[in-house]
Write a structure and sequence with these properties.
This protein is α/β, with parallel strands linked by helices. The protein has two domains: about 180 residues, Rossmann fold (3-Layer(aba) Sandwich), CATH 3.40.50.620; about 110 residues, Rossmann fold, CATH 3.40.50.1220. Helices cover about 30% and strands about 25% of the residues. The protein has eleven helices and 17 strands. The strands form four sheets. A seven-stranded parallel β-sheet has the order 7-11-6-1-4-5-12, sandwiched between helices. Strands 14-13-15-16-17 form a five-stranded parallel β-sheet. Strands 8-9-10 form a three-stranded antiparallel β-sheet, with no helix packed on it. α4 packs across α5. The protein is globular, with a radius of gyration of 24 Å. The relative contact order is 0.10. It binds flavin-adenine dinucleotide (FAD). Flavin-adenine dinucleotide binds next to α8, α9, β16 and α11. Its cofactor is FAD. Heterodimer of an alpha and a beta subunit. Belongs to the ETF alpha-subunit/FixB family. InterPro entries: DHS-like_NAD/FAD-binding_dom, ETF_a/b_N, ETF_a/FixB, ETF_alpha_N, ETF_asu_C, ETF_asu_C_CS, Rossmann-like_a/b/a_fold.
Length: about 350
């Protein structure tokens, strides 16, 4: 009888032990901010977190210093209904988003919070921070996720986007992901759409201050194009020029057209390598991944490495003088013609912006 009771109690215990690992998910989203606002790509990472599980509790991690961090935290707290907590790391160490201190921060926050998932958008920030943080946590991240089919089941492109692989994560917690922001569009949320703003909490950085490895990299300068153009990664329209544009001087036509229709400018690697434009405009496997409403390609042959970066665009228009150019296989509208005739005609016929 006594042993029966013990067995019964033991069974109860074993049931409890089996249930606890299936507690609801909690996700840490690593977010970038600029000018006091959260970047759209980071909100896409929140969308991805939401699709892991309806009950997922989402914490957003922001780092920086001073007033812009405070403004970004306030914006983050009411920017998406799925965010339940905003964690802020306020220190001079984070004035610039250097990967090494950020990786230490992620490690620290994960040790305290025990999140089941860590997600960042797959931009240069995420690509810089995630591998370092993963090494500190001794886990293997899953990169460039385009679809979430379950809390440990993900879809990501391989072979320059020519095949999709389904990956089941079987490693230890946390499961770390980088997501393609273009695959997780943000449901249109009016500003301050959330009635209950998420709580904002400071991360205690005292242990980080003692960590010598944090100061190993230092910020030197930021060089970026100072143009009032939409960001290539988030633009609704992208006008891209390829080697067919022939020179940096001719590329000004692409610029003019982009300006006229409020588009971002993109380029192929051949155009970048030829020195027509800087490499931050490169679209493709080794450049930026874009998925605008409208993608216009002029003098672009359509190599698979280029297609890998723009194939998810909603409408693709291609102008090429070679009727057999592979770009026409992915184009919704194709025009076999000389870009040096077509672009001036477009510039003439498109009305000036009011
Ligand atoms: C590992 C690896 C990674 C790569 N990553 C990328 C990447 O991220 N992005 C990328 O773009 N490429 C990438 N590439 C390079 C890629 O393979 C191609 O070489 C490149 O995309 C070709 O660029 P293009 O279409 O501008 O040039 P081309 O292939 O030379 O095509 C030029 C096109 O312009 C047309 N043309 C010429 N004159 C005119 C005219 N007057 N009017 C109309 N059309 C005209 C021609 O018919 C031709 O089709 C990568 C390659 C490798 C090996």
């Amino acid at each position: 009888m006594a042993s029966g009771r013990i067995l019964f109690a033991f069974r109860n215990l074993s049931i409890t032990a089996r249930i606890t690992p299936y507690r609801s998910l909690s996700t840490l989203v690593l977010a970038e901010h600029e000018g006091g606002s959260i970047k759209t790509s980071s909100l896409s990472a929140v969308e991805a977190a939401k699709s892991l599980d309806g009950d997922n509790s989402v914490s957003l991690l922001l780092a920086g210093s001073g007033q812009s961090l405070k403004e970004a935290a306030a914006h983050a707290a009411s920017s998406h209904p799925s965010i339940s907590q905003v964690l802020i790391a306020d220190s001079d160490k984070f004035t610039y988003p250097l990967a090494e201190p950020w990786a230490r921060l992620v490690h620290l926050v994960q040790q305290r919070g025990g999140y089941s998932h860590i997600i960042a958008a797959s931009g240069s920030f995420g690509k810089n921070v995630l591998p370092r943080a993963a090494a500190l946590l001794d886990i293997s991240p899953i990169t460039d996720v385009t679809k979430i089919s379950g809390s440990n089941l993900f879809i990501r492109p391989i072979y320059a986007g020519n095949a999709l692989s389904t990956v089941r994560y079987t490693g230890s917690s946390p499961c770390m992901l980088s997501i393609r922001a273009t695959s997780f569009p943000i449901a249109s949320l009016p500003a301050d759409s959330k009635s209950d703003a998420a709580s904002i909490d400071q991360v205690d950085l005292s242990t980080l201050d003692e960590d010598d490895s944090v100061g190993k990299s230092r910020y030197i300068k930021l060089s970026s194009q100072n143009v009032e153009r939409p960001d290539l990664g988030n633009a609704h329209i992208v006008v891209t020029g390829g080697r067919g544009v022939k020179s940096a001087e001719n590329f000004k036509m692409i610029d003019k057209l982009a300006e006229k229709i409020g588009a971002a400018v993109g380029a192929t690697r051949a155009a970048v390598d030829a020195g027509f434009v800087p490499n931050d405009l490169q679209v493709g496997q080794t450049g930026k991944i874009v998925a605008p409403e409208l993608y216009m390609a002029f003098g672009v042959s359509g190599a698979i490495q280029h297609i890998a970066g723009m194939r998810d665009s909603k409408v693709i228009v291609a102008v090429n003088k070679d009727a057999d150019a592979p770009i026409f296989q992915v184009a919704d509208y194709g025009l076999v013609g000389d870009l040096f005739e077509v672009i001036p005609e477009l510039l003439e016929k498109i009305p000036e912006k009011k």
